[in-house]
């Protein structure tokens, strides 16, 4: 039997603490064959007739302009209506992050799913793949038929998760949703993103339990969402969910998994050594290891940071002078479209005076005033027009687009293919992504200020569902299960 499956999505992680506002310019939009090509694993499902709708994806940023979300939804609706004129779809696969925010909404994915459900009707089966740092509200959980999350951080199983969500969608349709039950438990836990690594304990053991659960009779999937800590919203907290074909079993497994998570909450720690910005810079300068990586965690564009803070750079320059260091250093990068534009007419080898960074900061002293040598001008799709500058032995990459230098390819595009030849490399991220982790002889996370501050108590939360660990610690969690019956499509949730 052939099933008609529509595909689409909107994918972004939004910090509500960043001054940056995400808009259409930040998103890559795919439709038609280009969208289908994004999922090469579709060839493994000959029983599915796949119809592309629209998918938009952006680097983590700030709250999204409502006008762009409306634009995306209008395009999605037009594609769906054109599809329905031919023949109704049996299912819809959505590629989501789960931590989007847009103007006027505290539950972006939940609000969108309810709108989409009104469009598709209850007969269409909806499945979504999500980042494990997504936030799962009751509305989202009740409206979709199936949700599943990545099981690794750093995220190396994105394609695997998408394929699983698609496969389960076909399975559920083939079973006509008969006896399908989804059970969710909210946990009052909100951990810093850099405490959620699945490569070390207790995250490794926590996510290892999923393999045990899904092997059990009548269980088809289990997921753990750590939640997104830099969104000041009631839905920002950890969630576990189990899907299967017997309510008693899904609820038991969900409660057992939640209880284990809660019991291990105090065991979570940073995935790498973490120090104050000053301590981190001194550690790097005095380390015998090469290359030694410093993560500017608070201004991480990969978590929604503006990417233009120069606090850490200023601290490093001061200590570099104090230590009389001659180490070769690379800072990649600072987002500063204005400074890059000022370099349009500069020649290689020219010395220029610039006020670097701080364009989005309200602080008057946010920028770095410096003389720098123009070493290289380039442009690519990720960073836009960009420049490599030299401040003595310190190289600095300026970009006109927000970017996280997370892969070897980003360095190669900047003409820095041999980035491992530097003594010290500073990047704006948390835990190192795989390419950098493999290259690093040593590492430290600088607990720097910014929209992705790792110390959550530094952030001005007002909307969280409290109490929540670790902002509050002296309380006992009241764990409850929310289950949705087969084919309820958000219409018939029942609470235990």
Fold and architecture overview:
The chain has 12 helices and 20 strands. The model is unreliable at 490-496 (pLDDT under 50). It is an alpha/beta fold and 496 residues long. The relative contact order is 0.14. The radius of gyration is 23 Å and the shape is globular. The protein has helices at 32-37, 66-86, 108-120, 138-143, 158-174, 203-214, 247-263, 277-286, 311-322, 337-342, 408-413, 434-439; strands spanning 3-11, 27-31, 48-58, 91-96, 125-130, 146-149, 181-187, 219-225, 238-244, 274-275, 292-296, 329-335, 351-356, 368-380, 384-391, 394-399, 424-427, 442-446, 481-484, 493-495. The chain is 27% helix and 25% strand. A hairpin with a 3-residue loop joins strand 14 (368-380) and strand 15 (384-391). The strands form 3 sheets. It has a 9-stranded mixed sheet. A 6-stranded mixed sheet has the order 2-3-1-4-5-6, sandwiched between helices. The chain has a 5-stranded antiparallel sheet with strand order 8-9-7-19-20. Helix 8 (277-286) packs across helix 9. It has 2 domains: 3-269 and 478-495, no CATH class; 277-446, no CATH class.
